[in-house]
Amino acid sequence: ASKQYATARNQWLQTRQLLWQNYPTDGERAGAEIRAVWLDRGTIVQARSERGLAMVFDRLAAAGINTVFFETLNAGYTIYPSNVAPRQNPLTISWDPLESAVKLARERNMEIHAWIWTFATGNKAHNRALGQPDSYLGPVISAHPDWVMTDKRGRKRHPSDGKVYMDPANPYVRQYLLRIIDEIASRYQVDGIQLDYIRYPFQNPGRNFSYGYSTTARQQFQQLHGVDPMKISSRDRQNRWKWTEFKINQVNSFVADTSRFLKQKYPRMILSAAVFPFPRHERFDKIQQDWETWVLRGDIDLLTPMTYALDTNRFQQITQPLTSTRVLGSTLITPAVKLLNLPEIVAVDQIQAARDLPTGGYIIFAAERITGGLHGFLTRTQGGPETGKNNRASLSAFANPSHVVEGPIPYRQPFAAAADRFQALKKEWSFLLANEQLSMRKSELESWRVKAEELAADLNQLAENPDNSNLNKARNSLRRFQLQFRGSMSVHGRENAYQVQTWQNRLAALEMLLNYGDQVRLKSGRF
Questions:
Q1: In the predicted model, what is the mean pLDDT of the chain?
Q2: 513 with 402, same domain?
Q3: 182 lies in a domain?
Q4: Burial class (CB in 10 A: 0-12, 13-18, 19+), 204
Q5: Rounded CA gap, 424 and 461, in Å?
Q6: Whole-prediction pTM value?
């Protein structure tokens, strides 16, 4: 008010630093959740062997990670010896990392999901790691030149990201990718498939820079609409939208095909997608990614939006709009925390922010950066129990890992996860009441306690005997509790608004878990 801006800013910076120094980094967390990590190709290559990879899995299990997205198809190379793909990654040719990863995950009670680059199939950075020239388009396009996607000028490599893309409109591309997925699922019995690069390359239609102009795509579009997309002018809005819509439909239909294939042949397989959290219209124009359609159709089980941000406020602003059941339908969501260039305490804060929203959990990019203080925090607050000495002297350590991850994983046991989460909430409320830190009118308290016990009992009953009758009972009990909750917390919320909103979000997360369980357990009978 006195316009002493420099002084005010300095005091604000000092206050923020003091808050970071006193940030709570101990204590139990919010109950059953997806605690996932992307385990990237570089970390796999550096492991060199099953023994080295076991050390990575031990570190993740000690930190309580229960889901590993294992980079399996990258830049056109498989991480394993394939009968479908042209080449295994030359840096893993002496062993089968995927086979080892499945074994190591099983021993630690973790799930392993094969993370695959879908339409991106070549990478200039990867060429350098393998001693290939920048001009090399990767093993897949080298074997099948007609599968490549080009921009309007005929360029095969994206000028900004250095990658090469396959054309989703090409039926042989789609068949190839489904054969890869089938090979992974049948040979290795992974727990899930994650589609990454499930989109077109980044474009800028305002500058007449767009992608997708293969011969196959042009012919298909011309048959549908009577015009060659290469000849659509920037002023022809109607046909420009038809061309964009055509490309959106290519991606959508491939996701639907993959979902249908997995549900029919591998019904226990979890299908997830790594997506961008941009507004929908922006994604349509730039990358033709329409994940809202996938989630509302029930094509995927788990959405992992890349909600990367350098501060927690921005992380919350990006993530919160994505968590509504109106957006997600019956799909679970795990927002992503990118550790690169992020101070450890800010990473901790963002993980907590993910828990404070109605989500299924969180996912971290990437495994190699879960070290030091962050690893210590995760181990203290969610780490699995030790099962023996951490012996690295012999291969017997593989059969006796030092940590085993416990607890239900929401995408696998949604009803048990809902019961566990509500039990964690009750425990938190009991602690606050016992320490006189929960302000509630005495007239409200007893009724609130009764309804909380009723909801806990109904959720436990549903977890033990999942059927439609128990689901309806739990849903009705949850709705009644939610309706009463806001009024019951009116006094406490005056000075603890964020805390009360967090509790409401966690109740909304229970609704999300019940919706997902209804879809995958009761309606489809997959689990």
A1: 93
A2: no
A3: yes
A4: exposed
A5: 17
A6: 0.94
Which of 407, 441, 467 is the endpoint of a domain? 407
Task: Give pLDDT tens digits for 414-471.
Answer: 999 999 999 999 999 999 999 999 998 888 899 999 999 999 999 999 999 999 999 9
1 located within any domain? no
Query: Same structural domain for residues 372 and 516?
Result: no
Pull the structure tokens for residue 511.
Answer: 């609704």
Query: Residue 351: inside a domain, yes or no?
Result: yes
Same domain? For 420 and 360 the reply is no
**β-strands 163-165, 361-365 pairing:** unpaired
Q: Do 195 and 273 touch, CB atoms closer than 8 A?
A: yes
284-338 residue pLDDT tens? 999 999 999 999 999 999 999 999 999 999 999 999 999 998 999 999 999 999 9
- Residue 505's domain spans which residues? 416-523
Answer whether the bond into residue 366 is a cis peptide, omega within 30°.
yes
394 vs 352, more confident: 352
504 in the same domain as 355: no
**In which region does residue 40 sit, left (phi positive, over 0), alpha (psi from -120 to 50) or beta (all else)?**
beta
Q: Look up residue 522 and give its two tokens.
A: 């009761």
Q: How many helices and strands, by DSSP H and E, does the chain display?
A: 21, 12
Confirm if 403 and 384 have CB atoms less than 8 A apart.
yes
Please, are residues 521 and 475 in contact by the beta-carbon 8 Å criterion?
Answer: no
Among the candidates 407, 442, 471, a domain finishes at: 407
Residue 4 forms part of a structural domain:
no
